[in-house]
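Support request, priority: normal
Reporter: lab tech (M.K.)
Component: structure prediction queue

Hi team, I submitted a job for Cell division protein FtsI/penicillin-binding protein 2 from Catenuloplanes niger yesterday, and the status page still shows it as pending. I've pasted the exact input below so you can check whether something in the sequence is tripping the parser. The sequence length should be 631 residues. Please let me know if I need to resubmit or if it's stuck on your end.
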Amino acid sequence: MLRLRTAAVTALVLASTSLTACSGSDGPGDTLNAFLAGWRSGNLDGVGVVSAAGQTMSPADVNAAIRALSGELADTPPELSAPEPAEDKTLATGDVKVSWTLPGGRRWEYQAPVRLSKGDDAWRVVWEPAVVHPQLKEGDELRVQRIAGTRAPILDAAGAPIFSDRKVVVVGIHPKLATDLAGTVTTLSAEMKQFGVDLGGLKAEVEAAEPDDEVVVATLRDTDYAKVKAKIEKLPGVQTREENRVLAPTRVFARALLGTVGDVTKEDMDAAPGTFEIGDQTGHGGLQERYDEQLRGTPGEAVVITQAAPAGEPTFTELWRAEPAAGKPVRTTLDPKIQTAADDAVSTETKRAALVAIKISDGSIVAVANGPNGGAENLAFTAQVPPGSTYKMVTALGLLDANIVGKDSPVDCPKTYTVEGRTFNNAYDMQLGTVPFHTDFARSCNTAFAALSTKLGAPGLAAASAQLGIGGTWDVGAEAYTGKVSTGTPAAELAAAAFGQGKTVVSPLAMATATAAVARGAFVAPKLVLDPAPAGSPAPVAPLKETSVTPLKEMMREVVTAGTATDLKSVKGDPVYGKTGTAEFDDANLDKTHGWFVGWRGDIAVAVFVEEGGTGGGAAVPLVKNFFSAL
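Reply from support: The job had stalled in the queue. We restarted it manually and it finished. Here are the results:
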């Protein structure tokens, strides 16, 4: 599409040459060169110029005429050059090479005719609009039109576009019609809350607006607008209009990961001067923002003559055009069906929550969901939080690798266990006595793992973590936190780290990656963006020991069949394996805990995190059940 530029063109510093001549010089070339130098500098003093009728023109009048015809290009005078004019007694003619630098950096070049006349032994330039461009006439001006390029799509795993043009309804308030502003804002605020729209400052914004302004309240998909239409369409001052916007399949579809596409803002324009114009579309947040330059492509430009019309709109004559370059797609590993199941699962949680699903066979990230309402940030990738007892999966791997325990080894699970004066306990004051290690794992006994930590040591915990990719340097093509393992000193810190407390912090993505490694039997770096592929890859990691990973898988199945995640036994299809987690994060209030679950079913590994959700079994497991049941 074509769009007129509204901003002044940034001034360009042009190289200048010494072109000084006056109307009394010997030849027409000297006068012409002086005129061209004066055109570029805006100073035509000493240069003789006459009208087509032979009347002498002042330097100020000539300069004003050039600027008027140049229009939007007036502040960036062109580079100008001309060969010696052809002379015939009192007349001379020539062609001027005109080379403009346009806002997009492109060059627009052409030849313009020029005439000179000789009188009183002095040459003078004959002024006419054609000197600026052969097609210009008095009253015309040059303008630059921006030609928007076609924004490329973000693609899913099958190569299909995730975003496409969809109908929306823009809801706005017109101040002069808002006869009951307080009532209108109250109703709008209540109705928009379900879409995650906060209208806290709307009343003040409307009061500060001009009477004929439109204050945009929200832009809703037509399906969402249908839910509130009956309650808001007749509110005083509310008016709506339909538009098309580039949107994902649903309002929450991987929203925090993908971002959105919308009109460019003042902040966008200030951050990248000269890149955008009012009316442009750009990415906000997520992959749409990270890969915006690639996706939006390069806009084209056209130079037109604007002809003033006696009545009505002016007309335009195109002189030159550079076609836009379309953007290049970004291909991801997301699976729409699995993503929708993840979004639906998280939608039932009112607290901040995240779900990451990875294909075990190849490490592809197939779903990334955040909530509520799609999430304000991509916690699934960027949260840095303690993993709680889900980390017992990592610690158990280290213990099995080092032959410290076997699956059936007897391990005591007392009510409390004290290390260096710090006392650890179990949820609900659980004590199991001496039971097989797999029971300690399935029932999530903190004290058993705290006691075993001294045998494993910090190096052992670090080695097990590294085997599963935690704290690694892998890059998925989006901002992501891979985790940090506690150094395990002093001994009390190591005891806490053994069951996911202390200074160990992870993201849901890091834990989903580790879980997929256990299910696969080897770490494979997760992948999200396939094209453009992230630079570099982590060093290969040796496969996990079969003698360790096989019993660990059996223990994670027991968590579902007889442990802390028995609600998942009823999920149909392939069996579910997993580990719940309850993570303390506030030393001043140990009752505040995050809820976790990590596990897999079939070829899909998953990590679910619920901020301040309480227990993993109470908060995370129901989301996992909904997710797996939908697949």
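The mean pLDDT is 92. The radius of gyration is 35 Å. Let us know if anything else looks off. Ticket resolved.
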